[in-house]
Each structure stands twice: as structure tokens, then as C-alpha cells.
Structure to design on (75 residues):
């Protein structure tokens, strides 16, 4: 019997100035419906990387893109 994936974890190791940990959980809530929860811990060190991350990284847009891509992949 196959067990559906219910948890996905990623360790973010881009460079010494940026890293973190990402967890996504997927729980069935009804016929053809899944509740998705994401938790992300981002670590940015150094003043220049912090400024750049605030200016150029839109967390809300990143989540919307991920959800959209996830829907496309599962339909």
C-alpha cells in the first residue's frame, strides 16, 4: 500500500549570507481537497544581503507562485 506524501522538508543552503529551513505539510480534508501549510525560517546575515532581501524578495508572491505551480502539477 502506498502512503501519500504528507510532509516535505528542504534545507536552504544558498550561500554564507542566506539560508534557512522550509517545511510543507499536506493533509487531506475532503474528496479531492488538501490543506497545505508552509513554515519557512530564513536566515539572512550581513547588512547588504538584508537590505537586498527586503527590496527584491516578495514572500507573498513566492507563496502564490508555489501554490499555483503545485495546483498545475496535481490537476
Amino acid at each position: 500500500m502506498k502512503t501519500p506524501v504528507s510532509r516535505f522538508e528542504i534545507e536552504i543552503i544558498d550561500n554564507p549570507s542566506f539560508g534557512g529551513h522550509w517545511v510543507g505539510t499536506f493533509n487531506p480534508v475532503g474528496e479531492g481537497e488538501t490543506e497545505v501549510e508552509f513554515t519557512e525560517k530564513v536566515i539572512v546575515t550581513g547588512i547588504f544581503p538584508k537590505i537586498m532581501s527586503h527590496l527584491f524578495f516578495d514572500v507573498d508572491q513566492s507563496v502564490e507562485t508555489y501554490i499555483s505551480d503545485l495546483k498545475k502539477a496535481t490537476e
User: Anything to note?
Assistant: Residues 63 and 69 are 10 Å apart (CA to CA). The chain has a mean pLDDT of 85.
